[in-house]
Amino acid sequence: MKKNYIKLAIISSLALALFIPVIIFFSRAPVLIVAEQSLLTLYGQARLNRDVNKRSLALFRQVKIVQVVNDAGDDIVQYAVSDISAKPFCVIFSRRFAGSARIYSEQNPGIKIILLEGRYPENANPAGITGFHVYYTDIESDFFRAGYAAAAFVMGNSPETGNIAVFIEPEQYSNYGSQARNAFLRGVEEAGSGASPYFYTSFQDFPQTLDISCVVLAGAGWTYMDEKTGVPVILFSWLDPLMAPLDVVLIVDDSPFSQFLNAVSMLASGQEKGSIKSNFLVLTKDKKNSKVLRNINNM
Q: Is 221 left (phi over 0), alpha (psi -120 to 50) or beta?
């Protein structure tokens, strides 16, 4: 009988030891991410669930999505956030919701706010946001790695001196075009390729006679996907890889769902401003290129 009591005590202790972390996990204040429906659809629900759950465990606190309609006003956003949690650890807003973030902060002065500005340099912030933790996409790192990857695809498909067409959205090109170009060129050089990159802000500027070995679509040139095929495409997008066209070999993702883990860690360390690298999703099944790009997220 005594042995049974000892076994029961041991089992109870083990069960309690396993259960306590679960209780702590669910009792901690959650991280909230405000996202519109179109973004959730574009990102993919299965992918979202997988990524959020994985990063929730890394933070050891729940991460909850505040879903709002695309044209939601500030009042609707405030209600939606408060309805999910009255006292979250922090609330993450994208650039699209900068106005809502300001109002929410005024109404909830004790809640920490993270604003993810995306690919916009700090001096190009039109919202005039102050008092928030503001993080930007690491433009230099993204384009350096994109240049390295593009060169790898050129070398994998020979000749090593092929041409690369790089399309950048006009407004962003005016803000960081020189920085992006220089970083991209350094990436190509680092890969040991003699490829020649050409930069455009629209498909209309692209000369139809130019023979290219790789294409980079960073917010512009989408018409290329409709009119040409057969060349590896590096896509700066939040698109679910399952929805990507067949020519897309690499997706550069700077969505809130790929950045929030770093953002919360930076907030916890007291860093008010900073930049975050995008997540590079390698889709190519070519063994040579896959091997070259295997560690691209660690560059």
A: left
**180 in any annotated domain:** yes
* In-domain check, residue 266: no
What is the 8-class DSSP label of residue 122? G
- 93 and 143 in a single domain? The answer is no
115 and 145 co-located in one domain = no
In CATH, what number is assigned to the domain containing residue 117?
Answer: 3.40.50
Question: Which residue pairs from 201-207 have beta carbons closer than 8 angstroms and sit at least 24 positions apart in sequence?
Answer: 201/167, 201/168, 201/169, 201/170, 201/173, 202/167, 202/170, 203/167, 203/227, 206/165, 206/167
Q: Which domain holds residue 229?
A: 139-253+278-298
68-98 per-position pLDDT tens digit: 998 888 888 989 999 999 999 999 999 889 8
Report the alpha-carbon angle 67-263-131, nearest 5: 90
The pTM for the full model equals 0.88
